[in-house]
């Protein structure tokens, strides 16, 4: 017989429909037999019970997830409260630090205020001594030098003196000791100064002791006190 095919080739004549018939036979053989007893494999639940077990597991996981979320929210709220408490404590600490710093600065700037108030009368005495010294007194020069040195020492510690003479009366800086009738000065003007005022680092330590001008009373009619006929006519 003549060799009409290539060497090594194989050819079979398969009737039509044989392949389809073979596939149907395989499907029939692999289909479960309703009459055959169900085989239970250890560790694998039956088909019907597997769905219920899976649903139970899902419910269990959902419950665990909800519990975890609740605990997470609780922890977050607790952390928020702790954070707010920490911020309040930090703010209180900063305020305390600022108050302590301010108190220290106050002590440095005004710690000598009590001593200054005890020294001011000494300076007032020097002022009165100079004002009442007779002209040409040789002691005046020495008192002036002492007074100048005293004021320089006070100024190095932030003490400044101020005079109120000729200024409008200011109750925040002046203390009125008396009223002085005056026709020349405007009412409310300081025309007399008993003692100068002093400040310590721009804080008023003692107001100036002053006399304030008031308008002179009008003259009364003749024959009345203060009138031109006072003392009676001859």
Write up this protein.
- 49% of the residues lie in helices and 14% in strands.
- The chain contains 4 helices and 6 strands.
- It starts with 17 loop residues before the first helix and ends in a 20-residue tail after the last strand.
- It is an alpha+beta fold.
- α3 packs antiparallel against α4.
Top keywords for this entry?
single chain, 234 residues, alpha+beta, three-stranded antiparallel β-sheet, three-stranded mixed β-sheet, 4 helices, 6 strands, rod-shaped, disordered C terminus
Poorly predicted spans: 4-10, 227-234
Q: What order do the helices and strands follow?
A: HHHHEEEEEE
Oligomer: single chain
Radius of gyration: 57 Å
Mean pLDDT over the full residue set: 79
Largest sheet: 3 strands, antiparallel
| Number of extended strands | 6
Percent helix range? 40-55%
Spatial sequence of strands, sheet with the most strands: 1-4-5
According to CATH, what is the class of the domain at 113-214?
Mainly Beta
CATH homologous superfamily identity of the domain at 113-214: Head domain of nucleotide exchange factor GrpE
- Number of discrete helical segments: 4
Overall, the morphology is rod-shaped
In CATH terms, what is the architecture of the domain at 113-214?
Roll
**Could you please say which CATH topology of the domain at 113-214 applies here?**
Nucleotide Exchange Factor Grpe, Chain A, domain 2
- Class by SSE composition: alpha+beta
């Amino acid at each position: 017989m003549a060799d009409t095919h290539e060497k090594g080739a194989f050819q079979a004549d398969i009737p039509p429909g044989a392949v389809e018939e073979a596939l149907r036979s395989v499907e029939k053989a692999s289909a479960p037999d309703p009459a055959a007893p169900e085989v239970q494999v250890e560790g694998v639940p039956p088909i019907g019970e597997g769905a219920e077990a899976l649903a139970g597991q899902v419910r269990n996981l959902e419950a665990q997830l909800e519990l975890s979320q609740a605990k997470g929210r609780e922890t977050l709220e607790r952390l928020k409260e702790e954070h707010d408490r920490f911020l309040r404590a930090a703010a209180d600490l900063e305020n305390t630090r600022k108050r302590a710093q301010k108190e220290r600065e106050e002590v440095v700037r005004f710690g000598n205020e009590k001593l200054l108030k005890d020294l001011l009368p000494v300076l007032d005495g020097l002022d009165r001594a100079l004002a009442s010294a007779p002209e040409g007194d040789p002691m005046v020069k020495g008192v002036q030098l002492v007074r100048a040195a005293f004021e320089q020492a006070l100024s190095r510690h932030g003490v400044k003196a101020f005079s109120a003479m000729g200024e409008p009366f200011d109750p925040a800086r002046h203390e009125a000791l008396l009223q002085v009738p005056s026709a020349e000065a405007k009412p409310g003007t300081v025309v007399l100064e008993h003692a100068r005022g002093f400040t310590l680092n721009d804080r008023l330590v003692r107001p100036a002791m002053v006399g304030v001008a008031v308008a002179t009373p009008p003259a009364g009619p003749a024959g009345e006190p203060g009138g031109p006929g006072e003392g009676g006519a001859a």
